[in-house]
């Protein structure tokens, strides 16, 4: 059987849950038009009336099939959970709020308000944590160019999402595309962002001759640390 589209997965979920399915939202890079066709995940949020064990069992086969096709498991929430998570996960909610497409049901995001205080707190926590993770993972590359390139290209999107949402702290609505948002934040903070473009090319499979991978990673790390220091003031 051919790989399901997000719409087909939604139809399968609807056929099982019926009125118990409140909505399905496509979010992330595919919703923003900022994805690489074969490399970007399809991120879905499913709002359901109940998430007890019987309901989880009913949809488990559909979700398992979706994941076996190479997709991420959908984020499952009740409408009440979504409202509670605004202050618990403001970064995630803010990102979905800006970049989403309704596949089923009504759009629940216009009425949600994200606190800048909570957003700043989570951004600082996530950026510091991801930086620590980046350094730890670098230790495991043994300095080998191929592994270092994989580390940079695999981590780039995560950092760009964080930097993109940091623009909210300065009263600016981020551009839909992560790279453009990082450039805009760099301009505001007086920081260079060319390194992100270089790693973005590597992620797309571009070959850059005479590239010093070790020096590239050093610049990548220094740039990220500079952003974190500026945002954390």
SSE layout and pairing:
Layout: H1 6-17, E1 21-27, H2 29-32, E2 43-48, H3 53-68, E3 75-77, H4 79-88, H5 90-98, E4 100-104, H6 116-139, H7 145-166, H8 178-189, H9 194-203, H10 213-231
Parallel strand pairs: 2-3
Antiparallel strand pairs: 1-2, 1-4
Helix pairs in contact: 1-3, 4-5, 6-7, 6-10, 7-8, 7-9, 7-10
Overview of the molecule:
The chain has 233 residues and is an alpha+beta fold. It has two domains: 6-104, Beta Polymerase, domain 2; 116-231. The chain has ten helices and four strands. It has helices at residues 6-17, 29-32, 53-68, 79-88, 90-98, 116-139, 145-166, 178-189, 194-203, 213-231; strands at 21-27, 43-48, 75-77, 100-104. A four-stranded mixed sheet has the order 3-2-1-4. β2, α3 (53-68) and β3 (75-77) form a beta-alpha-beta unit. α6 (116-139) runs antiparallel to α7 (145-166) and α7 (145-166) packs parallel to α10 (213-231). The protein is globular and about 55 Å long. The model has no long low-confidence stretch (mean pLDDT 91).
């Amino acid at each position: 059987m051919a790989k399901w589209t997000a719409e087909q997965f939604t139809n399968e979920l609807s056929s099982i849950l019926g009125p118990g399915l409140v909505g399905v939202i496509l979010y992330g890079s595919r919703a923003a038009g900022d994805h690489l066709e074969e490399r970007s995940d399809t991120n879905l949020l499913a709002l359901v009336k109940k998430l007890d064990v019987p309901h989880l069992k009913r949809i488990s086969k559909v979700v398992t099939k979706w994941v076996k096709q190479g997709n991420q498991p959908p984020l499952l929430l009740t409408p009440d959970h979504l409202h509670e998570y605004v202050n618990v996960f403001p970064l995630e909610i803010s990102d979905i709020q800006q970049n989403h497409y309704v596949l089923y049901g009504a759009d629940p995001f216009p009425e949600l308000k994200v606190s800048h205080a909570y957003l700043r707190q989570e951004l600082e926590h996530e950026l510091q944590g991801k930086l620590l993770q980046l350094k730890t993972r670098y230790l495991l590359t043994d300095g080998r160019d191929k592994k270092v390139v994989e580390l940079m290209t695999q981590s780039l999107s995560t950092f760009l999402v964080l930097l993109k949402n940091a623009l909210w702290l300065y009263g600016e609505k981020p551009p839909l595309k992560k790279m453009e948002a990082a450039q805009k934040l760099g301009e505001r903070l007086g920081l260079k962002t060319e390194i992100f473009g270089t790693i973005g090319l590597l992620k797309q499979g571009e070959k850059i001759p005479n590239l010093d991978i070790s020096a590239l990673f050093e610049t990548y790390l220094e740039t990220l640390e500079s952003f974190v220091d500026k945002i954390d003031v």
